[in-house]
Specification:
This protein is of the alpha/beta class. It contains 4 helices and 5 strands. It has a 5-stranded mixed beta sheet with strand order 1-2-3-4-5, sandwiched between helices. Helix 2 packs across helix 3.
Amino acid sequence: MSYTTSFNKEDEIIEIRISGSATREEHYAALGDAIQLCQENGCAKLLIDLREMLSTRFTTTRCFTFGRSVADKPPFVRIAHVMPADAKSREDVRFVSTIEANRGIASREFETIDDAKTWLIGKK
C-alpha cells in the first residue's frame, strides 16, 4: 500500500489518498498522520480517497476495530470516503463508515472527490 496525507488549505480539509493492498499497520499509520495534521491545522474534516485501494486482507473484525478506533479518537467531526472500485473493498468501506456513524461521527461515502469535498465544506 501507498498512502499520502496532506492539508488542503483552501478547503480546510485533511486529505488521505490510499492505493493498493494495505496492512493493518499502514492503515493505522495513515490515521496517525491524519490526526497529527488535524491537530496542527485545527481541522476536523477528513477526506479519504480510496478509489485505488484493495482491502482483500481485511476481515469483518478488523474493519470493525478500525472503524471504532477512528470514531473514538478526536478530532474528526466529518469523514468523507471516496469509494474504491473493487466490490470487496466497497463493502469494507461501507461497514467502517457505518461504524463511525453509529459512534457519532458524520461519515458518508461518495463516488467522486468533488461530491465529497462539497459535503465536507457544507455547500450542500
